[in-house]
Write a structure and sequence with these properties.
It is a single chain. The protein is built from 25 helices and five strands. It starts with 8 loop residues before the first helix and ends with a helix. It folds into four domains: 106 residues, no CATH class; 47 residues, no CATH class; 129 residues, Ribonuclease H-like superfamily/Ribonuclease H (Nucleotidyltransferase, domain 5); 166 residues, no CATH class. It is of the alpha/beta class and 604 residues long.
């Protein structure tokens, strides 16, 4: 009889201990490790931060495969390599890309290498010998030497480096970059001297570092650190540069070896804000000490918005208080804008005079800007300031009445609508060649007039020469001025040019030109300070012309009373401030920035 034993399922898969050990060895050998996955074409790199030159791509890949022994996760290995690369670039003082950009560049290189391992391509390994560059070339460099070292390493493919085993002598380091030392106490100095004597007696050689640093005196611990944005804010305030351009100028000069801080654009702007607050504080303290000032203001329309510049002046200084935007060009809105600026500086008690243009908005009897300021002064219990119309503006209005009287041409446009003006515009270049000069003018010294004022001054002297010698002088022609009626001397220049270049108009313009070149220009080219003779001479010249409207304008707007302050009776300071505002409006996008840039231009 035979007995049969049926094996269970567990008994069928029973394996001995020797078999399990053999299987474990096979499984272990199949696991990925740096020993098996290490490529012959990649070097073994323990640490990237120990490099003394920029690493090549094959060095970075070698480090990537070395980290496989410690961590199998790809993201962790890439993160660690990014950290070591950032530390290496920090040792070189090279500006680096962002961590995100470094990670993306490293990941892309690893994917390309793994793809090449599956499908090898000729010449791919030669590309791995190029430098793995994460430098932000347009970033901020600490010095020119670092940038030169970077370019040398790029050109040599990483074969040029430097060693950090021997520190550089302090004599070769700029004082601002030397390590600051704390003051040494008496006990420490005694200990150091004992150590030095022991080293000398034992016959030890003094290292080169001690020799280099022994001659240097310790830098004091406390010193005042200069403002990093001081020079840049000067460029913004004095050279009318934007904060971005000022930052770039400083960086360019620093690259050329000029010891200049290189702040960022935001840093320069913060410096401008601090300087603005400082200037406003200086103006407020100045107004508390000095109480006698003249208020000047003028408007300009920029990008469909009405702006007003506000300035004050006395015999010694000019002060620009600010730029404000008005809701409209009405007298109420202009006054509200002026009130806002005057309240900010608490300057009501300092205003003793008002000089502005004689427009209806400013000089209205009941609702003009000047009348509103007078009412506010009365409400505050202050003395009403003296109002004086701008003499340049009055002289221009007088000349307009004279020309309208003789030429019989009126206009409602802002431009000069005279027929001789149109003829000059159409044939100005041809008329210059047709003009026949006969004699040379006597040389007269220019008192300092520029641009349009200088051209007007020379034309008046040319007419005086013609009347004296009865011969046309040689004239240096210049470009035609603006046609806008707000340009004070445009009418006078065009009238004089028409007299010389348009013979058909000489009989009509004889008396107006004679008035311009004599009594009118005498009042125009003065220092605009109070003189009783200026009014009398001008009154006599207008009386001879028999122009009633010009005479009425003179009597209405020309203030014959002595001024409270000995300053020019002209709104020239506000006109110049308007030009500054126009320049800054192209740079500044917000009203606050425009006002800050305007205030910073003060030189108190």
């Amino acid at each position: 009889m035979f007995l049969y034993f049926r094996e269970t399922g567990n008994m069928a898969y029973f394996k001995s201990s020797d078999t399990e050990k053999k299987n474990a060895q096979k499984w272990t050998s199949n696991l990925p490790s740096s020993i098996h996955t290490m490529r012959r074409d990649l070097p073994r790199v323990e640490c990237l931060t120990s490099f003394t030159r920029l690493p090549q791509k094959r060095h970075v890949l070698g480090k990537y495969h070395m980290l496989l022994e410690e961590d199998k996760m790809k993201s962790t290995r890439i993160k660690r390599i990014c950290q070591e690369l950032s530390e290496l670039w920090g040792k070189f003082n090279f500006p680096t890309l962002s961590q995100q950009a470094i990670n993306a560049r490293l990941t892309k290189m690893i994917l390309l290498y793994e793809k090449n391992q599956r499908r090898p391509k000729e010449g791919f390994l030669n590309g791995m010998k190029s430098i793995f560059d994460i430098t932000k070339v347009d970033g901020v460099w600490l010095c020119r030497e670092d940038k030169e070292l970077y370019h040398k390493q790029i050109e040599s493919g990483g074969k040029v480096g430097y060693t950090t085993h021997k520190p550089a002598p302090k004599s070769s380091i700029h004082p601002s970059k030397r390590q600051r030392h704390l003051p040494i106490s008496h006990e420490q100095s005694a200990t150091i001297s004992d150590m030095e004597s022991e080293s000398v007696s034992s016959g030890e050689n003094v290292s080169s570092v001690t020799e280099d640093s022994s001659d240097e005196e310790p830098v004091p611990n406390k010193r005042k650190k200069p403002s990093a944005t001081h020079q840049a804010t000067k460029l913004v305030s004095r050279q009318s540069l934007s904060t971005n351009k000022a930052s770039k100028v400083c960086a360019s000069l620093a690259e050329e070896g000029v010891p200049l801080p290189t702040p960022t654009q935001s840093g320069v702007w913060r410096g401008v804000i601090r300087l603005t607050e400082k200037k406003k504080g200086e103006i407020k303290s100045l107004l508390k000490e000095e109480k006698d000032y003249c208020l000047h203001f003028d408007g300009k329309r920029l990008v469909k918005q009405e702006y007003q510049v506000v300035c004050i002046k006395n015999a010694t200084r000019d002060v620009r208080l600010g730029v404000v935007r008005c809701k409209s060009g009405s007298s109420k809105d202009i006054y509200d804008a002026l009130e806002e600026v005057i309240d900010e500086y608490d300057a009501w008690s300092s205003i003793k005079m008002i000089v502005c243009d004689t427009t209806a908005v400013n000089t209205g009897r009941s609702n003009g800007v000047v009348a509103r300021i007078h009412r506010t002064m009365n409400e505050k219990g202050l003395d009403v300031p003296q109002y004086i119309g701008c003499q340049h503006h009055i002289l221009d209005r007088i000349l307009r009445h004279v020309l309208d009287f003789y030429v019989s041409e009126t206009t409602t446009k802002p431009s000069l609508n005279y027929k001789f003006v149109d003829e000059l515009l159409e044939n100005y270049n041809n008329l210059q060649t047709e003009y026949k000069a006969e004699t040379q003018m006597e040389k007269t010294e220019n008192p300092g007039w520029r641009d349009d004022f200088k051209f007007l001054y020379e034309l008046c002297k040319a007419f005086q020469h013609y009347k004296k010698h009865d011969s046309f002088p040689i004239i240096k022609w210049k470009k035609l001025p603006s046609l806008h009626s707000a340009r004070w001397n445009s009418r006078a220049i065009y009238t004089l040019l028409a007299y010389f270049l348009l013979p058909s108009w000489r009989n009509i313009l004889e008396r107006p030109v004679s008035f311009i070149a004599n009594s009118w220009q005498e009042a125009w080219f003065t220092d605009q300070k109070f003189k009783e003779t200026s009014y009398k001479d001008l009154h006599f010249g207008i009386t001879e012309l028999r122009c009633a409207s010009a005479l009425k304008c003179l009597k209405t707007h020309w203030n014959r009373a002595p001024p409270m302050l000995h300053i020019p009776r002209s709104n020239m300071i506000a006109e110049r401030a308007v030009k500054v505002m126009e320049e800054f409006s192209e740079i500044c996008k917000k009203d606050k920035y425009l006002n800050d840039r305007f205030v910073v231009t003060n030189n108190i």
